[in-house]
Amino acid sequence: MNRLITFILFLGFNYAQVSPFNSYDAVLYPEYYFDGLMAEIDAEINSEFLPLDFEMRVPVNADSIFFVSGSASSQAEVENLPILSSNNRSFVKVSILEKKFRLFIFYNLEKQGVRRSGRFDLELNHFVNDAHIIIQVPLVAEKFSFSEEGSEEFKDQHGINFKRVHLHDFKENRTKSVSFSYDNPTGEISINKLQTMLSTENQLISPASPNIEAQTCLLYTSPSP
């Protein structure tokens, strides 16, 4: 009996999936830098799995996709990835050589008058122990609705609201879809509103402070609570 239990435990350990990823975040930015949607994939790979053949589904209406390898402290390389298509499915493929990488996907929102809506499908060819889908709630948004009712909420350093979904033991080639909608009655984008807010705050703190434009020039990174 003891040998049977030991054998079953042995099989369990051997068949347990191991993820090549230490972290995997998909961050959605509706109408932030431009009047469409930017999705940023920010991930780190366990060095034991390098090089890693990586394939990920992308929106069928994706306009352009940029791959950035390395970290901010290293000499990052930027590559414009071709969008591949098969069986009505759009995707990208790349061989990853460094531990950290980011993907930037640009595509359009659905627009009907002031109403905006969009979706994102997470699907990749590797198992992930703990993945996240995060969406930034636009500063210009009214009546914002997100498909994931149990999502976690937090704010970044600028006070912008985010919603985060945790995906545990996310299987390879599985698809997780999220969707959202909101009104944008002004037609503005969030970065312009954020810069106006920061300029106003700087003027209130120090009315004579020079070079306000330089102070409000932002290089945005993935949010953290």
Describe this entry's structure for a reader.
This protein has 225 residues and is of the alpha+beta class. It has 3 helices and 15 strands. The chain has helices spanning 2-15, 190-205, 212-215; strands at residues 21-30, 37-45, 52-58, 62-69, 77-80, 84-86, 89-96, 100-107, 110-112, 115-122, 128-136, 142-146, 152-155, 161-170, 176-183. The strands form 3 sheets. The chain has an 8-stranded mixed beta sheet, with no helix packed on it. Strand 4 and strand 5 (77-80) form a beta hairpin. The longest helix has 16 residues, at 190-205.
Main sheet?
Answer: 8 strands, mixed
- Mean pLDDT score: 86
Element-level helix/strand string: HEEEEEEEEEEEEEEEHH
What percentage of amino acids are in beta strands? Answer: over 45%
Judged by helices, strands and strand pairing, the structural class is alpha+beta
- Describe the strand arrangement of the main beta sheet, using strand numbers: 5-4-8-2-1-11-14-13
Give the termini distance in whole angstroms.
49 Å
Low-confidence stretches: 205-220
Q: Count of DSSP helices?
A: 3
Q: For the CA atoms, what is the radius of gyration?
A: 21 Å
Total strand segments: 15
Report the helical percentage: 10-25%
Q: What is the overall silhouette? A: globular
What attributes characterize this protein structure?
alpha+beta; eight-stranded mixed beta sheet; 225 residues
